[in-house]
Amino acid sequence: MARQQGWLALILALAIASAALLASYGLQLGLDLRGGSQLTLQVMPAGAIKTVEQEQLEAVKEVLERRVNGLGVSESTLQTVGSDQLVLQLPGEQDPTRAAKVLGSTALLEFREQKPGSEKEMNGLLPLKRQVEAVLFARRPGAQADASNTPAPGQPAKPTTISEADMAKAFSALDLKIPAGSSEVDQLEILQAEVNRRVINLYGPPLLTGKELTSAGRQQDRTGTAWEVTLNFNREGAEKFASLTQSIAGTGRVLGIVLDGRSISEATVGPEFKAAGITGGSASIFGNFSTEEARDLEVQLRGGSLPLPVKIVEVRTVGPSLGADNIRSSLIAGVAGLVLVALFMVFTYRLPGFVAVLALSLYSLFNLAIYALIPVTLTLPGIAGFILSVGMAVDANVLIFERVKEELRSGNTLIRSIDTGFSLAFSSILDGHITGLISCVALFFLGTGLVKGFAVTLAIGLVLSLFTALTCTRTLLRLLMSYPSLRRLPYFLPARELPSGAA
Predict the structure, then answer these.
(1) 43 — alpha (psi -120 to 50), left (phi > 0) or beta?
(2) Rounded distance, CA 52 to CA 84, Å?
(3) Which of 302, 176, 173 shows the shortest CA–CA distance to 230?
(4) What is the pLDDT of residue 140?
(5) Using the 8-state DSSP alphabet, how is residue 471 labeled?
(6) What is the C-alpha separation between 436 and 447, in angstroms, rounded?
(7) Burial code of 386-415, b = ≥16 C-beta within 10 A, e = fewer?
(8) Which alpha helices (DSSP H) does 256-376 contain, by range?
(9) Which pLDDT value is given to residue 149?
(10) What is the per-residue pLDDT for 74?
(11) Which of 51, 167, 193, 364 is deepest in the core (most CB within 10 A)?
(12) CB atoms near residue 188 (< 10 Å)
């Protein structure tokens, strides 16, 4: 009796804890239930690498995962598909443009020294480059022209436009032609691309890369009108940075910071650093960054550069209304199935069937609580795995109750029939659940994407169904048998199946 009360107390405690978990954490819904965006990324061979191997695919995935985490999108999933593709799901994200930009760029950061003898050409290009960047900065959506045009003390105002005469003069100086019908922004972007190409040609090979970075951050610049990205190097990177800045200190040549082949910042180093260079292992990138651009660059640098380039081959958006329809349809199907199962169990097995319904309710509660605790991102295949596991749990109860009925028909007492039924059914239930778990393991390690979600939910359900069938059902049934009024054979067998002389 004390053992039975202990099991009952444990079951009640688990039920209360499960309800509290669900109330506190809730369930995480996947893309097909919540809506959101899905990006398919193709990993491209580059350089000496002609074929993407599994090791390289995993390396790309690791970098992309760090970037996704930096974006702050909750409950995102990134999975490999085939030999050279990755699928990223962003539940709740209806505009994947920013994520595509952050994930699709290689983010190869390089520090380059300006070539000696190129000072005159560089001094002619940099003012135009900065003028074009300032005008484009003012043209960005959401940019506050009044704030960006407010100069710092002692500094000239940043230009927010460029005259047609100056535009024509700039195109002429660069031997370019203004495309017919092009807008001012189009012309500025053409100028920016050409100036960048020429500036890059004035740099030497990279002497320091983002591989030596330990962290990246962001802060507003000294003018308060734009953002800068801060960098911290490891010991080797700090030594290279000091050597690099020492070599150009006081020469008038610039230190170029290049990201994916685009010069994003140029800085001169004063003669006071001629002795030892800039030490301390930290630096800042000034590039007229908006808040979002600085954040995206920080995410890219903290995630690291991609070992191979990636190409976004598909962007799919699932609306929240479709997700709501999926949830509604799944709930209707799930509730209808559970109600039909409950009616079948009560009609076929009577009092034990009622106990099985209670045990299955506890099973469902425990199952959902574990989904919230791990957490498991619930998708349509995951719901299918959950419903299938309910069927397995019902099957375990059917095996037990059929054994109990056989014992009662042979004339055994009620309590002994119940104990014997559980004992005889145990091996069959265990064998069935073990084979089911083997299938789940195979699906999880050999399957991809949503198949893994199905395997996880089914495996959790199978383990829990063993507990509920062999512990919860037995405890609840023995509890009811403690009431003499319920210890009647008609509550277990129909009249035609009762042994002769039984009441």
Answers:
(1) beta
(2) 6
(3) 302
(4) 67
(5) I
(6) 16
(7) bbbbbebbbbbbbbbbebbbebbeeebebe
(8) 291-303, 320-349, 351-373
(9) 44
(10) 57
(11) 364
(12) 20
Question: Whole-model pTM?
Answer: 0.58
Write out the two tokens for 478.
């023995």
pLDDT of residue 68: 79
DSSP per-residue codes, 179-227: PTT--HHHHHHHHHHHHHHHHHHTEEEEEEEGGGEEEEEEEE-TTSSSE
Neighbours of 485 (CB within 10 A): 7
Q: What is the largest CA-CA distance in the chain?
A: 115
**pLDDT tens by residue, 240-262:** 999 999 999 999 899 998 988 88
Closest CA to 284 of 297, 273, 274: 297
Whole-angstrom distance, CA of residue 498 vs CA of residue 478: 21
How would you class 136 by CB atoms within 10 Å of its CB: exposed for 0-12, middle for 13-18, buried for 19 or more?
A: middle
Name the token pair of 351.
């009092």
pLDDT of residue 500: 67
Identify the segments of the chain with pLDDT beneath 50: 144-155
Asked whether the beta carbons of 425 and 336 are under 8 A apart, the reply is no
The length of the chain is 503
Indicate the DSSP class of residue 154.
T
Distance (Å, whole) CA 114 – CA 106: 23
For residue 435 the two structure tokens come to 């084979």
